[in-house]
Design brief:
559 residues, 3-stranded mixed beta sheet, 12% strand
């Protein structure tokens, strides 16, 4: 006997074998047991969800001599004849190849004769949307008032192409996409019955690739088993055959994109191409990965929305924290446009590389969402103290940008600045100040304990402000931390409005408690407003460092 494909061999023979369409199965079974059977049904939904299978089961059920709970018994002669295709009472028509008016007229002539066996003549018209306009018009009258022994079951994947006059004459049943879990369970059941040795992770990926279609899932499993016949079908085998990419690769690519590592994205893409991965499938899967990240951000808890293992969900949650929803929507837009372009492109790799360059370099685009992302990055840089100042004179060249770190004491000669705080990063920022141009900053020595406290808080100032959040994050945005004695630091405000808010004892107390609980330091904080013309570029060094700089002993006189 010749081999029969899995999707044909395991086609449901009864309602109990149908998976993922419980709402439809229950309704049809109730109609059969109660005798309330309609004359016209419209089964609509995506491919491979069971439309034709349920239509054939229904045709056997209504003609079965002894139905069991609305399902065909499969043992009576009528059921056997229908199952073998020998019955004249069940006629299956492919509208894709029989879509003319004359084909429908043949049906109109046939329905005049009652069934030779059983109770009903059932006409199953598959892909009914392919009928011509004339054929639909010829079907209308018969569809509206057929003989009592005739049932029409119309199946389609494209409901919008069905005339409204036909829709209004049918009971409509919408077939859902079958969930990944349901597909996986069915594949596992059939694998055991067929004695196929396969990893559960491999079945899960096949179910995901089937996109809600049971027929596609069985066909993919058939393909994979045939390629690795006699071996254990592993997850890697499935990826190789389907030209797919492991989920971990998507996480690596996404992190490289968010960190603007364009070169790493291109290298990783080249590796996928060398492995023979299909770029169209990769783009589709990456869009799905981005969609999961967006859902996770929007819902907060994607456990009910995402069909995946706890390990993959944990990795997804970590990636979701790396960017915001607006940026994710830009990523999805860019890759959705890429997906449409790849259908007809001859240079798929070039287009995919260009898409990754767009993601890592939003300045290349002039769209609204890319501008928002660029502004967001600028704000992050300002908050984290990533800035440059123009250094006049001969230090580093005229007009050259020079980085400044006030804690370490490195300062561009002649560049007068104010230090302003970091809201999300480390260290401090700088902005112009009306001070004497070219005047070098003052150097002040501090005892080691005071200098350690100052450096600790200055280095962590951005993190502290961000962690405290709320009023503190907004009012402490433009502040500088200065020494003020043993175990005491002063928060210098550059804005009067922020000073009036941040000076309150409750806020200072909250700041002190956070520093104590986080760093184990008992530091007293006070506040003041910056004075007119005051410069905040003082460089603080320890006595030991000062000795090393001037290479001589220093005697500190007591006042």
């Amino acid at each position: 006997m010749s081999y029969m494909a899995l999707y044909r061999k395991w086609r449901p023979s009864g309602f109990k074998d149908v998976k993922g369409q419980d709402h439809i199965v229950r309704t049809l079974k109730n109609q059969i047991t109660s005798g309330r059977i309609g004359h016209a049904y419209l089964f609509c939904g995506t491919r491979g969800t069971g439309k034709t299978s349920i239509a054939k089961i229904f045709a056997r059920s209504v003609n079965c001599e002894s139905p069991e709970d609305g399902s065909p018994c499969g043992q009576c002669q009528t059921c056997k004849n229908i199952a073998s295709g020998a019955s004249l009472n069940v006629v299956e028509i492919d509208a894709a190849s029989n879509n003319g008016v004359e084909n429908i007229r043949d049906i109109r002539e046939q329905v005049q004769y009652p069934p030779t066996e059983g109770k009903y003549r059932v006409y199953i018209i598959d892909e009914v949307h392919m009928l011509s306009t004339g054929a639909f018009n010829a079907l209308l009258k018969t569809l509206e008032e057929p003989p009592s022994y005739v049932i029409f079951i119309l199946a389609t994947t494209e409901v919008p192409r069905i005339p409204i006059t036909v829709l209004s004459r049918c009971q409509r049943y919408d077939f859902k996409r079958i969930t990944i879990q349901t597909l996986t369970d069915r594949l596992k059941e059939l694998s055991q019955a067929e004695q196929i040795d396969v990893e559960e992770k491999a079945l899960t990926y096949i179910a995901k690739a089937a996109d809600g279609s049971m027929r596609d899932a069985l066909s993919l499993l058939d393909q994979c088993v045939a390629f690795h016949f006699g071996e254990t079908l592993t997850y890697d085998h499935v990826l190789d055959i389907l030209g797919a990419v492991d989920t971990g690769i998507f996480s690596q690519m996404f992190r490289a994109v968010t960190e603007e590592r364009t070169k790493d994205c291109i290298y990783q893409l080249e590796e996928l191409v060398l492995q023979g991965r299909e770029l169209g499938q990769f783009v589709t899967d990456f869009i799905w990965y981005l969609r999961n990240l967006l859902l996770l951000q929007a819902s907060g808890d994607g456990e009910d929305l995402l069909d995946m293992s706890s390990d993959n969900r944990k990795l997804l949650e970590e990636d979701a924290e790396r960017t915001d929803s607006e940026t994710l929507m830009r990523y999805i837009r860019v890759f959705s446009e890429l997906s449409n372009q790849l259908r007809y492109a001859s240079q798929k790799r070039v287009l995919t590389e260009l898409a990754f360059i767009k993601l890592t370099k939003p300045q290349m685009e002039k769209t609204y969402d890319s501008i928002l992302e660029r502004l967001s990055k600028i704000e992050e840089q300002l908050e984290e103290g990533v800035f440059t100042v123009k250094a006049p004179g001969n230090f580093g060249g005229v007009g050259e940008s020079v980085n400044r770190n006030p804690v370490a004491g490195t300062f561009a000669q002649g560049a007068a600045v104010y230090a302003t705080p970091s809201a999300a990063g480390q260290g401090t920022e700088a902005s112009n100040v009306p001070a004497s141009a070219g005047a070098p900053p003052e150097q002040v020595t501090l005892p080691k304990a005071q200098l350690d406290d100052l450096q600790l808080i200055r280095n962590e100032w951005g993190k502290i402000v961000k962690a405290l959040g709320g009023v503190i994050r907004s009012s402490f945005r433009d502040t500088v931390v200065e020494p003020s004695g043993d175990s005491c630091l002063c928060v210098v405000f550059l804005s009067v409005e922020n000073f009036e808010i941040g000076r309150r004892p409750t806020i200072m107390g909250e700041l002190e408690n956070y520093v104590k609980n986080t760093y184990g330091k008992d530091i007293y904080f006070k506040s003041r407003l910056i004075g007119n013309g005051e410069r905040l570029d003082t460089v603080y060094i320890s006595e030991e460092e000062l000795r090393e700089r001037i290479h001589m002993d220093i005697i500190f006189e007591e006042e």
